[in-house]
Structures
1.
Amino acid sequence: MALLAAHGGSTEALLATITAFIEQQAAAADAPEAVDVDQMTQLPTTVAKSADKAMAKAVAARAAQAEAAAGGEGSGVDVGTLCKHSGCDNKYAAEASMGAACVHHPGVPVFHEGLKYWSCCPAKKMTEFADFMSYAGCTTGGCEFATQEEIAATPKPCRYDFYQYGDCLAISIYAKVADPMRCTFAASGKQLKVMVTFGFSNKFELDVQLEHAIRPQESKVEFMAPKIEIVLKKASGDTWAELGKVAEKSSLC
Ligand SMILES: [Zn+2]
Ligand SMILES: [Zn+2]
């Protein structure tokens, strides 16, 4: 109403004022970001149908799991979870597994000058890794299984690699159930910055000083079911021996 009064009701003048106001707001919103990313370009992303489906399936499975947990049933341990104790191969099958005999080594592995042994069994030093791994436990007790909560509280690492074809360099990031809405991919001619959120609570960051120059404007990202593929357009025909100087970080979000 104040705007209307100020412009004496002229629709054109009012529109011009509103347009200017919107542009001003947009410029103000963009400004800090432009400084932050340091001339980095956000790479365009597409999401394959298979990735959409995998995400929907994971969300449904997670909801079912949460519902089961809310019902007070079970211990919060996933069936198939391996016992935490060294040397024990028991897997969680049901509540009853908690009572199974747990033959294990309470000590820690010691690797020294080619010899391998358990700190709780120092008399038995071995040279073969397989012998060390299968050396029977010295203590019997109850198994202990990590709960879903404990597993969720541990950041999961994220594997990645790269390959080349034509004038492109493709980086595959094996992030299961990645959320496209919570991922960012930015690149300049010589740098790539990636932030991927996956498995609902894991964050993986990659900051690469690229070995050779790229064309960010012609580069892109695609979400596929088992991985995310970043395709960088090479600025020259060089074959890359390595990705460049890489800094990576896994955390919870
Ligand atoms: Zn032992
Ligand atoms: Zn055990």
2.
Amino acid sequence: RPCSTRATLEGINKPVIDRIIRVDHAGEYGANRIYAGQMAVLGRSSAGPIIQQMWNQEKDHLKKFNELMVAYRVRPTVLLPFWNVAGFVLGAGSALLGKKGAMACTVAVEESISDHYNSQIRTLMEEDPEKYKELLQIIKQFRDDEREHHDIGLEHDAEAAPAYSVLKTAIQLGCKAAIFLSERI
Ligand SMILES: [Fe+2]
Ligand SMILES: [Fe+2]
């Protein structure tokens, strides 16, 4: 379809869509780096396979947002090099607390991301559910995947991690800041 890009961009609220795709791409990029950091520490432990399974889904999420950036002509956030390092450090750091620490990190991050996706779904529904059908479908699917990662974390004793609630609050503050910044720059 030679005109697919033009058709995609036709009549969309470009600033809104730019912001959504840029921040989601940043988030999925960061998620990949978090799981990479966790695997570097816990890859050979009993938690390895379950972390790898979640990471594989994040790879699909990131691939999809890479495609969407091209289709909607959105540039990535300038903060990617920072999320590259920060994501890995968060993943590896939480994993150094042990399997439960890694799972606590997963619960905190995935809860933030699924809330964030829910708020985007509301925004797009208010904008035009028909026009943004494809995007809505993708975000709903990913929201469900992130919810599942969150539940996997809880099933694997996230709440038994050292200083669980402090850790969760701190990580979620970081997520909020990352979302705020990645939407804007
Ligand atoms: Fe994801
Ligand atoms: Fe996830």
